[in-house]
Amino acid sequence: MLQSDLFTKTEKQAPGGEESKNAILLQRAGFVAKEMAGVYTFLPLGYLVLKRIENIIREEMLKLGALEIFMPSLTSETSWQKTKREKMDILFHLEGRDKARLVLNPTHEEVITPLMKKYISSYKDLPFSAFQFQNKFRNEPRAKSGLLRGREFIMKDLYSFHQNENGLEEFYEKAKQSYFNIFARVGLKEQTVLTFASGGAFSKYSHEFQVINEAGEDKIHLCKKCGIAINNEIIAEQKVCPECGSSILEVKKAVEVGNIFKLRKKFSESFDLRFKTAQGNDKLVEMGCYGIGLSRLMGVVVEEYSDAKGLVWPKTIAPFRAHLLCLGGEKVKVVANKLYHNLLYKNQEVLYDTREVSSGEKFAEADLIGLPYRFVLSEKTLEKDSVEIKERQSQQIKLIKINDLPKFLFEN
Question: Is 399 in contact with 386 (CB distance < 8 Å)?
Fold first, then answer.
């Protein structure tokens, strides 16, 4: 992509009223635009990051054998009345033309459970799992910290349906590993901690995936022995590590990036979702749910990897692999244009800066945007038939032959 084609512009100053790094840097670099607290437009560069995260998650969900669907954002309030959750304080309520009471969904158990009544009737229909990427709406009383606490955001939610608790448990463990794979692939392998949390009305415990970071609002108690954590909300009832029994726990600030619940029969009972066993008996379906907030995950990556100069994107989710800067006259431009089109031909996407601005401004914006590699073609490098390469997280600069650049990108 030509940088000059972007309708967005970078900003030198931090937007007013913002404190979190992700809110400041994503707006300054032109990745998002704030509509109001907790509501953002994802601009071209930001939307590319979001889609990269989505594709990673989709790949891991498909490996689980789940099928992708897309459910509505709007639901009748009667569904929420059936689950006795219509008075949740985070719900946005609407009234339709016929005075029907509606809800903007913050989660989709009230949609998918009655939906499955159409398709699940026998033990032969189970197990089954489905996932989606969908906007969620939550009337957060304290929408803040950029993408970390939103009122409208994109979530992946996965739901699984089983004959019995053993089947649920087996899938639950596979989903747990799938989540670890996802967080590793977006660059958060070392920072993500499996955390025991309250199961609410569903089971004794649920599991959260918490990223240890000072920007987090959650407090977790990290076991120094095995690395499992306990959410602060249950520490009074669970004073030792539930995994190894150790009482040596260290308090850390963290951001929740995913959670998984064994819903058991909570929602199947509300909607009378049953199946016939092989013996002809009626049984309630066992259910599980598994969520990841994509925009929050994006915000956490920024909090974890950004520096004083700007964003620092992991290679797997960066909007482009490299930033190509053309510094020089017409002779340099001719070679740079040829190189750019050669990279595109070989499916190596780069952000190409040909703008008539100073070298210093180009360097500063490249650091702010934070792509994994910066390539510089100038009169000086052209004398050596080379391109200057610098990794975003490194101070080291090296030269590589122009013809070798596509191979370099392919291998790195």
Answer: yes
Q: Is the pLDDT of residue 200 over 80?
A: no
What pLDDT sits at residue 201?
63
Say if strands 74-76 and 92-95 run parallel, antiparallel, or are unpaired: unpaired
Is 395 within a domain? yes
Contacts 24+ apart (CB under 8 A), 223-230: 223/248, 223/249, 224/248, 224/249, 224/250, 227/193, 227/194, 228/193, 228/194, 228/195, 228/196, 229/193, 229/194, 229/195, 229/196, 229/254, 230/195, 230/196
Residue 61 is given by DSSP the state H
- Whether 145 shows a pLDDT value over 90: the answer reads no
Structure tokens at 6: 């972007």
Taking a C-beta distance cutoff of 8 angstroms, is the pair 299, 22 a contact? yes
Enclosing domain of residue 332: 322-411
pTM of structure = 0.95
- Shared domain check, 212 and 239: yes
Whether 166 and 87 map to the same domain: the answer is yes
- The tally of domains found in the chain comes to 2
In this structure, what CATH number is given to the domain that contains residue 346?
A: 3.40.50.800
Peptide bond into 72 cis (omega under 30): no
Q: How far apart are CA 188 and CA 192, in angstroms?
A: 6
Residues 181 and 326 in one domain: no
DSSP string, 235-261: TTT--S-TTT----EEEEEEEEEEEEE
Q: Of how many residues is the chain composed?
A: 412
Mean pLDDT of 167-188: 97
C-alpha angle with apex 70: 34 to 63, nearest 5 degrees? 105
The rounded distance, in Å, linking the Cα atoms of 363 and 229 is 41
Single out the residue in 272, 305, 338 at which a domain terminates.
305
pLDDT of 105 strictly over 70:
yes
Backbone angles phi, psi at 123, to 5 degrees: -60, -25
